[in-house]
Amino acid sequence: MQLPPIIHTSEPNSWAHHTFKERIPRILDDVMAANDYPRDIMVALRALRDEIVSGTIRALNEEADDRAFWDAHAREHLGKTWLEVPWYWAEAFFYRRVLEAVRYFQPSPFYHRDPYAPIKRQELERAPSAVDNIIEQLPADESVAFHVLMHAALWGNRVDLSMYNITSVEPDHENVLIDDTLRVWAYLQSHRGQRVDFICDNAGTELLFDLALADFLLRNHLAREIVLHLKPYPTFVSDAMIKDVHESLDALERFDGTLRSLAARLTQAIADQQLGLQDHPFWVTGLFFHDLPSDLRARLAQSSLVINKGDANYRRLIGDCHWESTTPFEAASAHFPASVVAIRTLKSEPIVGLRAGVAEQLCAQDARWKINGRFGVIQFRK
């Protein structure tokens, strides 16, 4: 289907506009405060901040493997301000520019040093206790336990380090706007022993809940293999990379009992190639999933079910566009090459699949319902 108009940062009173007026400069402030960078890197980060606030977009200057890609996709936006371009592209390119500023790809002491690591580390220290509270109390009934873990995976998505003041992962059944958990359960029951893929979002709390769900699927033979699709380099502050999975397992191993056992099972699953950790350059681009490269499309097409996690991946799945909220999720995601369930708390405007009148009721109840992480969806398309 033809996509509606794409959201731009130029739209007054939009979350996209607010992101580049307020949130992005604050993220740069946090990066500078959290790291012991030398003067030249701090100068580069301040220059990027100045460019965001009052300058115009420039191309990458560094030589890197992805330079040609970004040159091609940035060309039409160069010379514009950051407040007059497509929102998702702007975010993706901003995070790539941060890596240029901190010399992430250049031979130096800062080669492959995650600029968000200190911020992520603090959150990871708190995350295991939240996971322990859930899995210690999992009911014996397999279907009920699955429901608990799906909702934990949903509310874990609230903890997003590019946002602020969103920390609660307590079960919140009243605020699940669409809940296809029972449909997903029935689907997995009829497709036991096949491959399930996760398109991961945040490290920390959310990733730990995703790992707990993956462990459940393997232990209960709902999947013979799990593949986690992760970012190849740091982006969106807390997005998970392969190294974040290993750091998460290390964090779980420091605890006794349930968490250490979970870490041991997951570590063994990786060794047995039941749990695969993969990354791909596409995941850090500004492209939507409509434009999946052929190799990644073929890989996902082999999956029985793809679990698409988080708000940014939701925007990429349906297109970061001005959708009518009543557009069927099945129609908006029809291009995707496998059965898919989107698990996402709302932290941006795009939303589809709502019944007529629901969006209007929510607007009257909470003017920020699309962006404040209060509400969530679990939407499935066979």
How is the biggest beta sheet arranged? 7 strands, mixed
Instruction: Give the SSE string.
Output: HHHHHHEHEHEHHEHEHHEHE
Low-confidence runs of at least 5 consecutive residues: none
Topology, number of strands = 7
Number of discrete helical segments: 14
Over all CA atoms, what is the radius of gyration? 20 Å
| Structural shape | globular
Outline the structure in words:
This protein has 382 residues and is α/β, with parallel strands linked by helices. The chain is built from 14 helices and 7 strands. The protein has helices at residues 15-34, 39-54, 67-74, 87-101, 117-135, 142-156, 181-190, 205-219, 242-253, 258-271, 294-301, 311-318, 329-332, 358-365, and strands spanning 176-179, 194-199, 223-230, 275-279, 305-309, 340-345, 376-381. Strands 1-7-6-5-2-3-4 form a 7-stranded mixed sheet, with helices on both faces. Helix 8 (205-219) links the parallel strand 2 and strand 3 (223-230). Helix 1 (15-34) packs antiparallel against helix 2, helix 5 crosses helix 8 (205-219) and helix 9 runs antiparallel to helix 10 (258-271). The longest helix is centred in the first third of the chain and has 20 residues, at 15-34.
